[in-house]
Design goal:
Keywords: Phosphoprotein
Shape: globular
CATH topology: Rossmann fold
Order of helices and strands: EHEHEEEHEHEH
Strand content: 15-25%
Strand order of the largest sheet: 2-1-3-6-7
Number of domains: 1
CATH class: Alpha Beta
Protein name: Chemotaxis protein CheY
Largest sheet: 5 strands, parallel
Helix content: 40-55%
Distance between the termini: 12 Å
CATH superfamily: Response regulator
Radius of gyration: 13 Å
Pfam families: Response_reg
Structural class: alpha/beta
């Protein structure tokens, strides 16, 4: 069975790119544009990995990662944080929130896929 990856990204172009690349590699994807839907969607589908944009309208990806890590049903799902705002200390803050991986935008395909494969169990 293909691994299911939830792609949380408010930018339509980035979300489509991530999903297309993942599908081409044989993964199932669940795109999410609205940060407010992330936790309920994750509970519903139990993805193998969550790719999380950090700068979402109205809600922080860091807050979503922290919230997911507090929930028994979600805490073991690895999160790959992807952000355009890579300031000093950001990666540390994001990893402290519970992200297992971190990439700064713009993201190149090979490092992106390497990060995804690193975080997927099995």
């Amino acid at each position: 069975m293909a691994k299911l990856i939830m792609v949380v990204e408010d930018n339509d172009l980035n979300r489509k790119l991530f999903c297309d690349v993942l599908k081409a590699q044989g993964f199932e994807v669940k795109p999410i544009a609205d940060g407010n839907e992330v936790l309920s969607a994750a509970r519903e589908i139990s993805p193998d990995l969550i790719i999380m944009d950090i700068q979402l309208p109205g809600i922080s990806g860091v807050d979503l990662i922290e919230a997911a890590k507090k929930e028994t049903s979600l805490k073991d799902i690895p999160v790959l944080a992807v952000t355009a705002f890579a300031a000093k200390g950001d990666e540390e803050k994001i990893r402290e929130a519970g992200a297992a991986g971190y990439l700064s935008k713009p993201v190149s395909i090979i490092p992106f896929m390497n990060a995804v494969k690193e975080l997927l169990p099995g």
